[in-house]
C-alpha cells in the first residue's frame, strides 16, 4: 500500500520544497516549545485559561454568567473551538501536557507555513524576481519564523497562552485568499463574482471556489482568537478596507451589480461570526460597563512608559515585557548594541517603500503600510508624535478604551503588517544585489539578517535557558517560587475521584479565599502554580472562592470568610446551612502571596478553620490527603438537587446587599433558616407585604458621606439649556409657589449654588461689575434660604436631613471661597474685597447655626450615629455588628433605651424612625504626650507588631516652625544616619508603609490615615525627620499628643 502511494506521488521540485517547509516548520516549532512540556508538564500562569479535563468541556454550555452568555470565560461561545480541541487531544493522548504541546506546535508551525505561502505570493506579485531562486525560499522561510517567533508572540501568545494564537497562525492564508478572490491589478476583474452559467462556474472559477473555502474555513478557525472583541472589530476593518481598495482599483461604477456583490461578501463575513457573537452581544452592554467602570484611561500612562516610537519599531517596550522580567531583560532594555540589529526591519520597510512606488502592484503594499501605520499609532500610546490625538481618543471616543493594553490589542495586526513589509524590503534588496552580482554584499546582508533573527527570536532560542515565567517571594522568612511550568499532582486527581458524583447539587467552600487568581506550592514534587483556580477547571463541582470583579456575587462570596475572620464560627456554620453549602475544603498547599490571597484575612486560615471544624459535630471529615482536607456539612434535611427549593420564609430588609457586611448582617438575623426569599426593594415590599414573616431592618450611618468643594461645578450655560429655562418661565414651570417647604429649600440651595458658581467665574475673569451683581444676588439667596429654614417644621430626621443638606451645599461653597481668599490672587478692588470677606463671614455664621442643630456621627468624640427605620411594629432584637477588631463598643443607645457595655437591645418598637448612637473606643498603638526634636535630628519610635487594618496618625505642634518635616512608617528598622543625609527626592521607598514629605510645621493639627496589610508579623517603626536639616533655624521642635490609633472603617 505504501509503495502504491509513493508511486502515485510525483516528487517534483516544488512539491519537495513544500514538504521540506512543512517538516522544517514542525522541527522549528518543536525546538521552540519542547522545554516547556518535557517531563509531562504544562504551561499555566496568571490568567491563562486551560481546560484541565473533558468534564470542563461538557460543562461549557451549562455555565451562564451575566456578561458572558453562555459559556465559561472569555467571549462565551467563541471559546468552543479552543475548549473542545484541547479536550479532544487530551482524551486521545491521555495527557494534558501532550495536548497543550501539540496545540502550541500546531499554532507555530501553521504560522510559519501560512506566512511562507503569503510571502511567496508577495514575492511573485510585488518583487517579481527575474527567475526562481532557492535564496528567495530561504528568505521567505526565515521571515516566516520571525513572524511566528518574536518578542511580541512570546509575551502575548505563548509564555502566557493567549487564544490570539488562533489568529496569528491562520491570518496570512486568510488574507491571501482575500487577495486571490478580489485581486487589485494582477488579474483582470470580471463583472460578477459568480459566473452566470454552471459550466463557467465549474471550469473557469474552480480555483476561485477553492479560495472561497479557504477564506471562510480559515475565518472560522480564528474564532477563538476573537475572544477579545477588539480583534474582531479590527479584522472587520481590515476586510472592509481591502474591499474598498479593490473597488477603487477596479474602477467600477459605485452603483453596480459588482459593488453589490462585494457588499454582499462583506455581510457574509460578518454573519460568519454571528453564531458566537450574537449571544455575547446580548450582554455586551453590561460587559462594557463592567470593564469601563475600572477606567479605560487608567492604563494609558503605564502603557506609555517604554513603548516610544523607536522601541515600538523594534518590537519591544510593551507593558507585558516591562511587567514580566527575565534574567536577560537588560539585553533589550539597557544594551543598545544588542538591539541595534532590530533597526534592520524598519529600514527594510523604508527601502521597500522607495522601491515599490513605481510598481503597478503598489495597492497590496499600500494596504499593509496603512495597517502598519495605524497600528503603530495606537501601539506607541502616549508617546510622540501626535500623542494628544491618542489621549483624546482614550478619553472621549466610545470603546477606544478597549486599546488600554495597546501592544496586546493593536500589536497583533501591527506585526501582521510589519513582517510582510520588511520581507518585501529584503527581497528587493536581494534582487538588486543579484542583478548587480554583488554576491559578497548579499552574504553580508544574509548574515546581518540572521543576527537580527537571533535577536528578535531571542526568548525562544538564544535565551531558552530562562523563558519560563517564575516569581520568587518570601513568606515567614522562607523563599518560595511560583513557576509557569507545572504539573498537576496526584493529590488533585484523588480529590477529583472522591468528589465526582458526590458534589451534584452541592457547593464547596474553599479555605483560604483566593483573589482573582490562586496559587499553590507543591514542595514534595518541586512544582507550583499561580493562576486561575485549578480546582474550578479540573473538578466539575461548584466552588466558592475566587473574586469575580462583580459586586453582587463577590459580596456574597466574601461573607463566610468575614465570619471566620471575626471568629463567629456559629454564624459561619449557619451561613453554610442557609445557602446549602455542603462541603468545606481546606487547602494545605497554599502559601499566602499578595496577588492571590486576601491579605487581611488572618483568622480565616486553614489551620484555625480546621481547629473549629474538628470540634464541631455538625462537620464530618470526609476526605484527606497531603494537600486537602474535605469536611461534609451534616444536615438532617435531604439536599435539594441543584440548590432549588420553594421559600418557607420571606424576609424584608432595607439593606442594599452590596457588601459582604450586608450579607453577614442578614445571615445572622436568619440564624439557621433555609428556603428563604429576601426582598430589599420598596416596590416589591409593597406588593408582597402581607407575605413577609421576618423583618431585618438595618440602621444607616448619619453624616458618614462627605462632599467636598469639588462638587461645585459651573452651571450649564449652553444655548439649549437657556432655551429650556426660557420655555419653563413662559409656562410657569419654574415657579416654586406650589412646592412643599422641603422642596422650596432644596430648590433655593440649587439656585444659590448656581449663583455662587457664576460669582466665582466672574472673579476669575476679573469682571468686577459682574462680580458685584453676583455677590449681591448670592447674599439675597442665602437670606432666602435662612428665612425658609426658620419656617420649616418637620420630624426629627427630616429636619436633620434638611440641615445636613444645607451644610453640604453651604459648606462646599464656604470651602471654595476660603480657598480663593487664601490664595495668592490679588483683589485690587477694595469694595469687592470687603464684600467677599463680609460674605465669608455670613457663610460662617449660617454654618455655625446649622451645625449646632445637626445630629450626625462624630469621629472626634467617637460617637457613631445612625438612623433605624422600622417597617412594622413588633418586638425587635437590635445588635451591633462590629467588623473592626481594633474597636470596642462602650455603649449602645436606641431611642431612649441605653445599654452600657452591651451591644444588644431587645425592645418593642412601633413603626417609624429611631436614632441610634454607639459610643466606641479604639486600640491605640502609641500615645506620646510630648516629643522634642532638635533641628536635623531623626526621631525613631518603635510601634511593635501592628495588626492589619486602617490607622490614624495625629499630633499637634507646640509652636509654628519653618522646618519641613517628613513622617514615615516602615516595616523595618532604618539606618538613622542615612536618613539624616537624605533629601525628599532621595528617600528609599522599600519597606515604607506610609510617608508624608510635604508637610511644614504649622499651628494646625496633623492628621493622616494609613493602612497595614501583611501576611507576616513584623515590627513597625515611626520616623520623624527634617527634610532641610541644613536650615539656619536652630529651634527645637516639639510634637504634642502623638497618637496612632485604629480608625473607624
UniProtKB/TrEMBL annotation:
<feature type="transmembrane region" description="Helical">
    <location>
        <begin position="164"/>
        <end position="182"/>
    </location>
</feature>
<feature type="transmembrane region" description="Helical">
    <location>
        <begin position="257"/>
        <end position="277"/>
    </location>
</feature>
<feature type="transmembrane region" description="Helical">
    <location>
        <begin position="337"/>
        <end position="354"/>
    </location>
</feature>
<feature type="transmembrane region" description="Helical">
    <location>
        <begin position="16"/>
        <end position="37"/>
    </location>
</feature>
<feature type="transmembrane region" description="Helical">
    <location>
        <begin position="135"/>
        <end position="158"/>
    </location>
</feature>
<keyword id="KW-0472">Membrane</keyword>
<feature type="transmembrane region" description="Helical">
    <location>
        <begin position="412"/>
        <end position="434"/>
    </location>
</feature>
<feature type="transmembrane region" description="Helical">
    <location>
        <begin position="361"/>
        <end position="379"/>
    </location>
</feature>
<protein>
    <submittedName>
        <fullName>Uncharacterized protein</fullName>
    </submittedName>
</protein>
<feature type="transmembrane region" description="Helical">
    <location>
        <begin position="446"/>
        <end position="465"/>
    </location>
</feature>
<feature type="transmembrane region" description="Helical">
    <location>
        <begin position="209"/>
        <end position="226"/>
    </location>
</feature>
<feature type="transmembrane region" description="Helical">
    <location>
        <begin position="102"/>
        <end position="123"/>
    </location>
</feature>
<keyword id="KW-1133">Transmembrane helix</keyword>
<keyword id="KW-0812">Transmembrane</keyword>
<feature type="transmembrane region" description="Helical">
    <location>
        <begin position="232"/>
        <end position="250"/>
    </location>
</feature>
Amino acid at each position: 500500500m505504501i509503495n502504491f502511494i509513493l508511486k502515485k506521488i510525483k516528487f517534483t521540485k516544488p512539491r519537495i520544497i513544500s514538504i521540506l517547509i512543512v517538516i522544517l516548520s514542525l522541527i522549528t516549532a518543536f525546538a521552540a516549545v519542547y522545554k516547556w512540556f518535557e517531563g509531562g508538564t504544562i504551561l499555566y500562569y496568571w490568567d491563562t485559561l486551560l481546560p484541565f479535563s473533558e468534564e470542563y468541556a461538557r460543562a461549557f454550555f451549562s455555565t451562564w454568567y451575566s456578561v458572558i452568555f453562555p459559556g465559561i470565560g472569555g467571549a462565551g461561545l467563541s471559546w468552543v473551538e479552543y475548549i473542545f480541541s484541547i479536550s479532544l487531544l487530551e482524551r486521545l493522548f491521555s495527557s494534558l501536557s501532550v495536548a497543550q504541546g501539540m496545540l502550541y506546535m500546531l499554532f507555530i508551525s501553521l504560522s510559519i507555513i501560512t506566512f511562507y505561502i503569503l510571502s511567496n505570493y508577495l514575492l511573485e506579485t510585488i518583487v517579481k524576481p527575474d527567475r526562481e531562486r532557492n535564496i528567495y525560499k530561504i528568505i521567505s522561510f526565515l521571515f516566516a519564523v520571525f513572524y511566528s517567533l518574536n518578542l511580541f508572540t512570546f509575551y502575548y501568545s505563548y509564555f502566557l497562552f493567549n487564544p490570539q494564537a488562533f489568529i496569528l497562525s491562520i491570518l496570512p492564508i486568510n488574507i491571501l485568499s482575500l487577495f486571490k478572490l478580489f485581486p487589485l491589478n494582477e488579474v483582470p476583474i470580471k463583472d460578477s463574482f459568480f459566473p452566470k452559467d454552471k459550466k463557467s462556474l465549474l471550469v473557469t472559477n474552480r480555483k476561485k471556489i477553492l479560495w472561497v473555502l479557504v477564506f471562510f474555513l480559515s475565518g472560522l478557525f480564528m474564532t477563538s482568537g476573537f475572544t477579545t472583541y477588539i480583534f474582531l472589530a479590527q479584522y472587520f476593518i481590515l476586510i472592509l478596507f481591502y474591499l474598498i481598495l479593490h473597488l477603487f482599483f477596479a474602477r467600477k461604477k459605485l452603483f453596480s451589480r459588482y459593488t453589490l456583490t462585494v457588499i454582499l461578501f462583506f455581510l457574509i463575513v460578518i454573519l460568519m461570526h454571528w453564531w458566537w457573537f450574537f449571544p455575547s452581544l446580548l450582554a455586551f452592554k453590561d460587559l462594557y460597563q463592567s470593564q469601563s467602570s475600572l477606567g479605560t484611561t487608567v492604563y494609558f500612562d503605564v502603557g506609555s512608559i517604554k513603548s516610544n516610537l523607536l522601541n515600538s519599531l523594534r518590537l519591544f517596550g510593551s507593558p507585558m515585557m516591562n511587567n514580566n522580567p527575565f534574567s536577560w531583560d537588560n539585553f533589550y532594555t539597557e544594551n543598545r548594541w544588542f538591539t541595534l540589529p532590530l533597526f534592520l526591519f524598519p529600514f527594510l520597510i523604508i527601502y521597500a517603500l522607495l522601491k515599490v512606488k513605481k510598481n503597478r502592484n503598489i495597492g497590496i503594499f499600500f494596504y499593509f503600510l496603512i495597517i502598519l501605520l495605524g497600528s503603530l499609532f495606537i501601539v506607541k500610546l502616549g508617546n510622540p508624535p501626535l500623542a494628544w490625538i491618542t489621549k483624546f481618543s482614550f478619553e472621549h471616543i466610545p470603546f477606544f478604551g478597549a486599546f488600554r493594553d495597546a501592544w496586546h490589542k493593536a500589536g497583533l495586526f501591527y506585526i501582521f503588517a510589519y513582517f510582510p513589509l520588511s520581507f518585501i524590503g529584503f527581497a528587493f534588496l536581494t534582487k538588486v544585489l543579484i542583478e548587480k552580482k554583488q554576491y559578497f554584499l548579499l552574504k553580508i546582508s544574509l548574515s546581518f539578517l540572521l543576527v537580527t533573527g537571533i535577536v528578535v527570536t531571542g526568548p525562544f532560542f538564544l535565551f531558552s535557558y530562562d523563558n519560563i515565567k517564575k516569581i520568587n517571594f518570601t513568606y515567614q522568612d522562607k523563599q518560595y517560587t511560583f513557576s509557569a511550568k507545572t504539573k498537576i499532582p496526584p493529590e488533585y486527581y484523588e480529590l477529583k475521584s472522591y468528589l465526582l458524583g458526590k458534589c451534584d447539587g452541592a457547593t464547596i467552600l474553599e479555605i483560604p479565599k483566593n483573589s482573582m487568581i490562586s496559587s499553590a506550592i507543591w514542595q514534595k514534587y518541586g512544582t507550583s502554580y499561580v493562576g486561575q483556580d485549578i480546582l474550578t477547571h479540573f473538578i466539575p463541582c461548584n466552588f466558592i472562592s475566587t473574586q469575580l470583579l462583580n459586586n453582587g456575587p463577590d459580596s456574597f462570596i466574601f461573607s463566610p470568610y468575614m465570619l471566620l475572620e471575626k471568629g463567629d464560627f456559629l454564624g459561619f456554620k449557619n451561613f453554610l446551612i442557609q445557602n446549602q453549602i455542603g462541603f468545606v475544603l481546606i487547602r494545605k498547599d497554599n502559601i499566602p502571596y499578595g496577588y492571590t490571597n486576601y491579605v487581611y484575612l488572618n483568622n480565616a486560615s486553614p489551620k484555625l478553620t480546621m481547629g473549629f471544624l474538628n470540634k464541631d459535630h455538625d462537620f464530618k471529615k470526609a476526605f484527606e490527603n497531603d494537600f486537602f482536607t474535605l469536611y461534609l456539612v451534616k444536615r438532617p434535611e435531604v439536599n435539594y438537587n441543584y440548590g432549588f427549593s420553594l421559600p418557607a420564609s420571606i424576609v424584608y430588609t432595607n439593606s442594599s446587599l452590596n457588601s459582604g457586611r450586608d450579607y453577614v448582617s442578614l445571615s445572622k438575623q436568619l440564624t439557621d433558616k433555609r428556603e428563604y426569599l429576601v426582598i430589599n426593594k420598596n416596590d416589591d415590599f409593597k406588593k408582597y407585604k402581607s407575605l413577609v414573616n421576618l423583618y431585618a431592618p438595618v440602621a444607616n450611618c448619619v453624616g458618614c458621606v462627605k462632599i467636598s468643594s469639588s462638587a461645585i461645578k459651573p452651571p450649564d450655560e449652553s444655548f439649549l439649556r437657556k432655551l429650556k429655562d426660557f420655555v419653563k418661565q413662559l409656562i410657569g414651570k419654574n415657579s416654586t409657589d406650589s412646592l412643599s417647604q422641603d422642596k422650596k429649600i432644596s430648590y433655593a440651595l440649587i439656585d444659590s449654588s448656581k449663583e455662587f458658581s457664576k460669582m466665582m467665574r466672574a472673579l476669575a475673569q476679573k469682571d468686577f461689575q459682574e462680580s458685584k451683581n453676583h455677590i449681591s444676588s448670592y447674599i439675597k439667596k442665602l437670606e432666602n434660604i435662612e428665612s425658609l429654614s426658620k419656617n420649616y417644621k418637620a420630624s426629627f430626621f427630616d429636619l436633620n436631613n434638611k440641615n445636613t443638606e444645607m451644610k453640604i451645599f453651604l459648606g462646599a461653597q464656604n470651602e471654595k471661597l476660603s480657598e480663593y481668599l487664601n490664595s495668592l490672587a490679588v483683589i485690587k478692588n477694595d469694595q469687592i474685597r470687603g464684600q467677599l470677606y463680609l460674605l465669608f463671614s455670613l457663610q460662617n455664621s449660617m454654618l455655625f447655626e446649622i451645625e449646632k442643630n445637626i445630629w450626625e456621627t462624630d469621629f472626634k468624640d467617637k460617637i457613631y450615629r445612625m438612623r433605624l427605620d422600622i417597617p412594622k411594629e413588633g418586638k425587635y432584637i437590635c445588635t451591633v455588628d462590629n467588623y473592626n477588631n481594633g474597636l470596642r463598643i462602650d455603649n449602645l443607645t436606641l431611642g431612649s433605651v441605653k445599654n452600657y457595655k452591651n451591644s444588644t437591645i431587645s425592645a418593642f418598637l412601633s413603626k417609624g424612625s429611631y436614632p441610634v448612637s454607639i459610643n466606641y473606643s479604639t486600640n491605640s498603638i502609641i500615645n506620646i504626650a510630648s516629643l522634642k526634636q532638635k533641628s536635623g535630628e531623626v526621631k525613631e519610635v518603635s510601634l511593635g507588631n501592628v495588626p492589619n487594618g486602617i490607622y490614624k496618625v495625629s499630633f499637634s505642634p507646640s509652636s509654628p516652625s519653618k522646618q519641613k518635616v517628613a513622617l514615615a512608617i516602615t516595616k523595618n528598622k532604618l539606618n538613622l544616619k542615612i536618613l539624616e543625609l537624605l533629601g525628599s527626592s532621595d528617600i528609599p521607598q522599600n519597606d515604607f508603609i506610609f510617608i508624608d514629605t510635604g508637610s511644614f510645621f504649622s499651628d494646625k493639627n496633623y492628621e493622616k490615615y494609613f493602612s497595614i496589610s501583611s501576611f507576616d508579623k513584623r515590627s513597625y517603626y515611626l520616623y520623624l525627620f527634617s527634610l532641610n536639616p541644613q536650615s539656619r533655624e536652630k529651634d527645637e521642635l516639639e510634637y504634642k499628643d502623638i497618637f496612632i490609633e485604629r480608625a473607624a472603617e
